[in-house]
Amino acid sequence: MTVLVTGATGTVGRPLVHHLLAAGHRVRALTRDPARAALPAGVEVVRGDTTDTGSLHAAFAGVTAAHLINFGHTYRPLANGPEIVAAAEAAGVRRVTLLGGWAEGSLEPAVRAGGLEWTHLRPGEFMANTLADWGPVLRAGDTISEPYADRPTTPVHEADIAAVAFTALTEDGHHGRTYALTGPEVVTPRTKLELLGRATGRDLTFDELTPDQARARWTAQRPALQIFQVAPGGPADQADFVLRLYGDIPAAGRTPTDTVERVTGRPARTFAQWAAENAAAFHA
Questions:
Q1: Parent domain of 54
Q2: Highest taxon of the source (predicted)?
């Protein structure tokens, strides 16, 4: 069958494309810049943007299943969810996976109310965010400075999210399911840095800031942390938002699930595995 992958060059989309190709499916990849997609041979790369419904009609044509994401390139929830679902249904799309972001937008209720078979994927923290958050800092030095060094999280490997999406797109039995996706263990920022130190062979240091120190730093200069992409308001409001979140991780964000293993049949990858796979990216 032909599967459309939106966000095809992203953290989850790229491994999903590889899964689908390896299984013999035809893959159409939606990207805002086809010239920079760098996707494997055999992938049909088309220009489009989920925030622009008009660009999706041709992308959906002839597609049996589609992987959708609920946010655009700004990480804000999409506002055109009903139009996206209408375009998919008009093109004859039968099944979708929907990758949720920071907050529910208009796409989730539109998918639930429509006639598509759907599976909602709700990952917590991505392991890959560690590279975005800490990569530039650790390529330049050996110290991470953040508050709440021992906050509990259950980050999930991006390849495991892609594997669950692949299973839901290509196998029956997942319609109407919402899958909370986590890694197999609780880890803290301090633990993550220790594991990165082992993987890179470096002596890395965690400099734990007080909330007041972090607020002052973040207000003076917005950090390159992924969470600030979705934090509302100005610098002070964003700093307070992140501090509240870091200081009180919700239960869903610190409780491991077995969803990855139940859906895919293989255990979820650990952060130590992710660190070993990505160690080179933290070297200068």
A1: 2-123
A2: Bacteria
